[in-house]
Amino acid sequence: MRPFELTAPTTVEDALAGTGTFLAGGTTLVDLMKLNVLTPQHVLDINQIPLLGIETGDGLRFGALERMADIAAHPGVYPAISRALLLSASQQIRNMASIGGNLLQRTRCSYFRDVAMPCNKREPGSGCPAISGANRMHAVLGTSDACVATHASDVAVALVALDAEVVLAGEDGTRVVKLAEFYREPGETPEVEHDLRPGELITEVRVPRLDWAENSTYVKVRDRQSYEFALCSAAVALDIRDGRIADARVAAGGVATVPWRLPGVEAALRGAPVTQEAFEAAAAVAAEGARPLSANGFKPSLLRRTIVRALLELTEGNR
Hints:
The chain has eleven helices and twelve strands. By secondary structure, it is α+β, with helices and mostly antiparallel strands. It is globular, with a radius of gyration of 19 Å. Strands 4-5-8-6-7 form a five-stranded antiparallel sheet. A four-stranded antiparallel sheet has the order 9-10-11-12. The protein has a three-stranded parallel sheet with strand order 1-3-2, with no helix packed on it. Helices cover 25% and strands 20% of the residues. The longest helix has 16 residues, at 299-314. The chain has a domain at 211-318: Enolase-like, domain 1.
């Protein structure tokens, strides 16, 4: 790790007036600094700023510095969000990591994290060796010829499924952006991962009220039971009435360059009976447009099966 200057602003205004890299829980930033993937000269520790609070009345609101463990354990947080948080990391990391920082975490692509290798995210124009290299964990949706790295956050998948928004503070004031629109597919500029402008700070996360979001879940498929990133995941919420699905929310992780909302699957579920056959028919469209690589051709099938598994778990008492 290279030397750096550390300051600790106590207000949002002071933080925005500074120049440097924001430090929240540090569970991603410190790792990347140790690897020299990120080498900021000035780090702004924002943990003294009162960006806290969990509200579960008319929708949900999380201050950006709320810790993942506290949100997961809070009554009234929708099950898909709680489960995604609990499955995302060890208890120690959940105790440290902030919700805002989790949404901004960088990819776990091994080429991005190895400064001896080229990487278009780290050094634009240097190349993407994952396309022809070790790519079992990489994306099959939302990829480009410049990048195939998956997005790492679990909870972002659940939040995208539930139409969450982030509140961003900057020198020009505050703006609200839907999380699904906040993230950027790589295209020809994989170094641009989101819509956070220079100097901006996430101050809170909002989830609109959805009365049937209590009937939601998050399923994560991975190589080992704990402390592992998703090969595939699915966040699902269902509104079931009279044995049929009135409405649905579905998003996937581990298979795309951003948290991947699946409107085609949602549309296929609406009006469908609560049966495994209907779930399989809806999930059949989940991987449309997928571009498998040499070692991850199993992911489209795994995505379909993960969605069906989540739907079956969620409707066990309704079939």
